[in-house]
Specification:
0% strand, 88 residues, mainly alpha, 2 domains
Length: 88
């Protein structure tokens, strides 16, 4: 999406946003980032049986091996964080 040639103040931007107006014309989406969510490559060596089981589980729900690994890791990390929060 192209950036609008019209500019507004931060206060006007906030007012429009708070009223529920579409403020996307005032944003430069080419520079948008998702802090903390940028992908980083990680290499993990797994035994063959584990890869086979991952592939079976992924096929059952119709996703890729990478997708199921990301979901499972995310769930486990959240569980561990929740457990630490309960203990603290």
């Amino acid at each position: 999406m192209k950036k609008s040639k019209t500019t507004i103040t931060a206060e006007e931007f906030d007012r429009r946003f708070d009223r529920g107006e579409d403020v996307s014309a005032f944003l430069d989406w080419s520079k948008a980032r998702r802090p903390g969510l940028e992908p980083r490559r990680v290499n993990v060596d797994l035994p063959e049986w584990m890869i086979s089981e991952l592939d079976k589980q992924a096929a059952l729900i119709g996703v890729t091996r990478q997708s199921i690994m990301k979901v499972w890791l995310s769930e486990r990390i959240k569980e561990e964080a929740d457990e630490r929060a309960r203990v603290a």
